[in-house]
Amino acid sequence: MRMENAQILEHRDIQGGYKRLVLRAPGIAPEVRPGQFVHLRVPHLEAAVLRRPFSVFDARDGALSILYKDAGHGTAVLKGAAPGETVSLIGPLGRGFPAECGGRMPVLVAGGYGMAALHLLARALPRRGIAFFGGKTADDVLCVDEFEALGWPVRIATEDGSLGERGLVTAPLDEWMKKPPREGVELFACGPMGMLRAIGERAIAGGWKAWLSLDRHMGCGVGACLTCVQKIHAPDGGWTWQRVCREGPVFESREIVWEDE
Ligand SMILES: Cc1cc2nc3c(=O)[nH]c(=O)nc-3n(C[C@H](O)[C@H](O)[C@H](O)COP(=O)(O)OP(=O)(O)OC[C@H]3O[C@@H](n4cnc5c(N)ncnc54)[C@H](O)[C@@H]3O)c2cc1C
Ligand code: FES
């Protein structure tokens, strides 16, 4: 982990309020592992001391990119940052996805910008499987071409039916899972908590592993402030708090204690 002033190389609209930011970060980029994130200080947002966490979508040739949604005050200001400006980054942060699947078929499941956390994994896994992308509308389904170019067929579901099947991403997943491959599956998911819980429950019921990347509000991003804690099952049968920014963001589904458990 290091802090770096990264120069903006490219900053462009993708679709529907999503942007792609490419940063020259020769210190951080070569160290990024799939599912890790950077903590970014939004330029010109002097009043806000807090950084914002973003998954690293891509990292190569001394540069890294993030995909982000205009979600609130910080990202609205970030949208105005121009190529040539510098952005302070801390990273790479967190425990990402294991880049192996034990001979089973890897299944990627993303809700909205969750696909950003899965892109480096899609490149790193030793074999190709299948990906399921979901969103509220077609605007929330991003970078399908880039996953397909890596050899991943992508099944799509949107809540309003504007792209792919109408409904939640679990609908095409459940349909596909009716005939799982003989070698079994290993699930890797990033998206809203409700989606992650649904994926985790399916993995436990099916006897598979599901690696889930949790999305939590963060303060420091480096383990000091405890803003991001999550209840995790302890070996003695009880539970303990763990920090999503340090021990996560990726946890195996059996580790997580969901809110009403
Ligand atoms: C590990 C990690 C990886 C992430 N990767 C991405 C990514 O690749 N692309 C992307 O667009 N976003 C990502 N996020 C979410 C992103 O950090 C928030 O959208 C961003 O911090 C919002 O900042 P803001 O100042 O614009 O919004 P604020 O003004 O702070 O908040 C606007 C709204 O967003 C909500 N919000 C703020 N932070 C989060 C959060 N972490 N999760 C859910 N809701 C939140 C607030 O409650 C509020 O309703 C990630 C979050 C985490 C923890
Ligand atoms: S964000 Fe501060 S401990 Fe995780």
Largest sheet, if any? 7 strands, antiparallel
Helix content: 10-25%
The CATH topology of the largest domain comes to Rossmann fold
The general outline is: globular
What Rg do the Cα atoms give?
18 Å
Low-confidence stretches: none
Provide the CATH top-level class of the largest domain. Alpha Beta
Mean pLDDT level: 95
Provide the CATH superfamily of the largest domain. Nucleotide-binding domain of ferredoxin-NADP reductase (FNR) module
Structural class: alpha/beta
> What spatial order of strands do you see in the largest sheet?
4-3-7-1-2-6-5
Description:
- It contains five helices and 16 strands.
- The protein is an alpha/beta fold and 261 residues long.
- The protein has two domains: 2-93, Translation factors (Elongation Factor Tu (Ef-tu), domain 3, Beta Barrel), CATH 2.40.30.10; 105-215, Rossmann fold (3-Layer(aba) Sandwich), CATH 3.40.50.80.
- The model has no long low-confidence stretch (mean pLDDT 95).
- Flavin-adenine dinucleotide binds at residues 37, 52-55, 66-69, 71-75, 113, 116, 215-218, 249.
